[in-house]
Amino acid sequence: APIAQKQLPTLILEKQALDAFKRAHSDTLIEAISLPSGSGLSSLHHGIVDAYIAAYRPLGQGLACQELFSFTPRLLIHDSHPLAAKGHFAFFDLLEYDIALPLEIGTFSLIESYARQRGVSRLSLKGIGASSREHAAFLRAGGAILVLGNSQMLEHDPECRLLPLRDDKPLRIPVYLVFYDDKISPGLIALKESLAGCYQKNESASGP
């Protein structure tokens, strides 16, 4: 059963979570692939994947969206960025820099609404390509990227880092396992429970 997640800069489905499922369900064949942002629904419709993981709730007839967990966005920067010395960020910090946001409309609207609540109404938003080279150039030029989960850029460029959001009420963005409700199977149910449990355990271990 192929499942998909979007490409750089965010790594929502971590290898350890998938490995834990494979160990517990050795009789279920599963393969994880990465797809360009925004292509999950069409890939599901055309049978390329049996399910996909998305940081937004898509709309469509017959779709089932099972919430797995939620993330607080973090800020991906280069070590030379002025915020590196601070060690964390707040949304008003973003007013001074070029920012790249997740491409999904649902995720963007959540971030935009949260920023407005904190008095940040105009961010300098930039579009960047999907390749690690384009991301590295953007970051080295002083840009920053809001990401969920971890980032594959940490593997491509050791001079990058993730900053946590410091806020008394941090933004939480839900992540869903999406599939057609007439394709529900014991394997998908087990996958949903396994991924949700893995991330809840990791978050509890990491502390507040």
Short description:
The chain is α/β, with parallel strands linked by helices. It has helices at residues 15-24, 40-45, 105-117, 132-140, 153-156, 186-206, and strands at 2-6, 31-35, 51-54, 63-71, 74-78, 98-100, 124-125, 144-147, 160-163, 173-180.
What does this protein look like?
The chain is an alpha/beta fold. It is 30% helix and 24% strand. The protein contains six helices and ten strands. The chain has helices at residues 15-24, 40-45, 105-117, 132-140, 153-156, 186-206; strands at residues 2-6, 31-35, 51-54, 63-71, 74-78, 98-100, 124-125, 144-147, 160-163, 173-180. A five-stranded mixed β-sheet has the order 2-1-3-10-4. Strand 1 (2-6), helix 1 and strand 2 form a beta-alpha-beta unit. Helix 1 crosses helix 6. The longest helix is centred in the last third of the chain and has 21 residues, at 186-206. The model is unreliable at 1-11 and 204-208 (pLDDT under 50).
